[in-house]
Specification:
Shape: elongated
Helix content: 40-55%
Number of domains: 2
Largest sheet: 6 strands, antiparallel
Radius of gyration: 38 Å
Strand order of the largest sheet: 3-4-5-6-7-8
Strand content: 15-25%
Order of helices and strands: HHHHHEHEHHEEEEEEEEHHEEH
Number of strands: 12
Length: about 425
Amino acid sequence: MSLHQSGQVLPFATVGLFVCALFMYFAVSSGQLVDEKMRIATAADAAAYSAATVEARALNYSAYATRAIIANQVALAQALSLASWTNYFADLWVNVDHASERLGELLPPDDLIRWAQLQATLVGEGYASAYGGVDPREIAQYVNHGAAAAITAADLASQGLELSESLVRQSLRAGDFAGSAGRQLQIAAEAAKISDESARVSINPGTHGFDSFLKRYGGDERGRLADVVRRSRDDFSRQRQWTLRNLLGFLGSRRLERTGGTDLQDFDHWAAVDDFTYRDNGGLFSGSTEDTVARGWTNVGSAPESGSLSTQYLLPALFSGLPSIVDIGSLDSGRPTTGLSVLATKPRAPALSAEAAAKAHPSGRLAVFDGRMPGNVVAALSRAEVFFERPDDRADGRSERGNLFDPYWRVRLVTPVPADHRYAASLQDGVALP
């Protein structure tokens, strides 16, 4: 008995091929969507990181500029110290006979080596004056002219550094308006286009706190800078002193005191002084004696002055005071940070069908996280943070707070803050803000 059989393979094969084609289509569409998401996310990260890196470099430049200002102030103090010391030495040269007489009253000295060195110096000065025709006051005037040039150069350099630091910060604003992200926006756009030529970026102004993060310290707020400058002086500028005594102290405390130093008297005045004074507290039958054998001094500020007990010198120096500097606004913050957030968008590829896009994207508030924007646009949100971190440990084992005296500002990508999500959501159609 034979049964009649008809073929069913072809209809099933046709349906199967159609289903496979649909799966293939959705697979390609989904792959293209994932690729678009990855590219726009990469573009957002690159844009945020690049723009924040410029801010970190600006902070580090401010730190280098502040250090250079300190170095120039130290150089200024060295030049002023040298002029004062030369004035004193010339005055000692002029009064060499008087100094030799006082030196002889210290026999026997408590430091024979220093006494011999000082005696040899005085003998050499007397010989040079008597037989060499040397006028120490002329030498002192030459030194004062050289010191004035160095002081003026250091002051102009400090002013130039202050101006350059201000220009660097202003360049980030692109001159648009206070707090604008004009320059960062340009850099962010250029970085995003490297990842995706069609990417467009915007910076959330509500979470971009670069300007409010910084503060200019001028006027009476220059105390921290003045303190660092004072502590940065070299030993010669800070203190120039020694004491030579009579060994037989029980007969009366006779001594020659060499004192001197250079100090920032206030924010707008440097002063240096060098003294060579003979003192005798007196014994049982005599009173005390104080005799200034030689003195030299210099100061700059409102009116530069230079002189000694025997001569006044010309010091044509310019000093406009300590410049203003920029530092972080909250000096008490242990871990100060700033940063910016970037929203990157791009048109969705036209090959994606409306059905595929609808299935791939949820609606409502979550749309921004999946990239759904009005006008068939894919979007991504990224934030970069600028933070302070030393690359190595301090030698003294102490931790260091963030500041603009040290160039240790770096960048990292972080999670966008809630305000960034609200900013992105506000750009969507039909999404109410919380």
